Amino acid sequence: MLGSASSDFLTEKVLLQGNDYGGMSSIRLMNCRPDAGIEFLLSLPSEVVFISNDYQEQHRLKFDGNRFITIEPIYMGNTSACMFMAKKLFEGVYLYNSDGKEIWKITRQDRNETAIDGVKFGDVEGDKRPEFAIYHRYKEGIHLVDQAGKTLWKYPVIAIGHLEMVDVSGDGKAEIIFSKSNNAGGVTEFVILDATGAPAYQILIPTTSYEFSIVGWPTKDGRPNLLLTEENKIRIVDLKGETVFQLSAPGCRPFGKVESVTVNLRKDDPSYLAVKKRLHPDLSVLFVYNPDGKLMYQKSEVVRGVLAPALTAGPPNEAGIEKLIVGASREFKAQILEYSLTR
User: Which residues, listed in sequence order, are joined to residue 175 by a DSSP beta bridge?
Assistant: First the structure.
């Protein structure tokens, strides 16, 4: 039933009810301010809110009165400072420093191109400095940009489904992995690009789902796998194209953004898997699986306002137990929910 949990496996608690209208694009647990330690960073349309581990607001960082569809913090090593990558819907991407001052921006008007559909970041060169993969769903493809805003290379793609940056080979350098959305034949192509923008290899997976997330589950060494959402199921697929796990996901669909995270809900147990899926502009669902892949908890909610499927694992306690932290919506205002084991 909509708004009701499928079981009492987890206990839900409202940690924070926002007073500002708008959605939430991400929740991150990071050290982004000197002498502040690890904090939650909540990305709202025009600002990032810093929250302590006991869920008290500490600071707000605003960005020149702009409103964005996403804002992502970028950790800068051991500097206790972050940059922030922001994106306006279809319009452009903007890089800000730790004080919220613009470093550079790249807009569709600057380049006389089609809509900019997304941006991801990662250390492609292995030099501890981020690069940015700006992508267009159609025609212009992928542009890799450095920290100074200089374009390093372009890779043309006719139809991009989704893109992520992750260290595939384990050498400390991020690769670009993207799916193609022209999958009418029931097979989706995934392509991995190396640091020069050349295809390292491709994977053909029988699926109509081009939306995916990257998750280090159920592997114990954290090796990345693809998480695909399909009709009433979720599949974990390795980077050879082999299905590792097939998970029951009632009501799930191929289309719509998805995020996933592993969380240690029980002492001495392997990690649980949490998946937040946007099923429809007005509907999202949370799935939680035990280490054996059994669906333990499911809850759907009506989404009012722009809300990305944001979630993260909270800081571990002395026993190493974590709580699941999830972004939600109530009356067009963002809220933070905490989930822990009921027993």
Answer: 166
Which residue is listed with tokens 């200089």?
A: 150
Q: Which of 288, 277, 278, 276 is nearest to 326 (CA)?
A: 276
- Is 88:96 a contact under the CB 8 Å cutoff? no
Burial of 75 (0-12, 13-18, 19+ CB in 10 A): middle
CB 263 within 8 A of CB 322: yes
pTM, two decimals, is 0.93
In this structure, the number of other CB atoms found within 10 A of the CB of residue 130 comes to: 22
Contact assessment for residue 289 and residue 296, using Cβ atoms and an 8 Å cutoff: yes
pLDDT along the chain (343 residues), means of 10: 73 83 84 90 92 91 88 81 90 93 88 81 92 90 95 93 92 94 91 95 94 90 90 96 96 93 94 92 90 95 74 94 90 85 85
Could you tell me the two tokens for 183? Answer: 């999958």
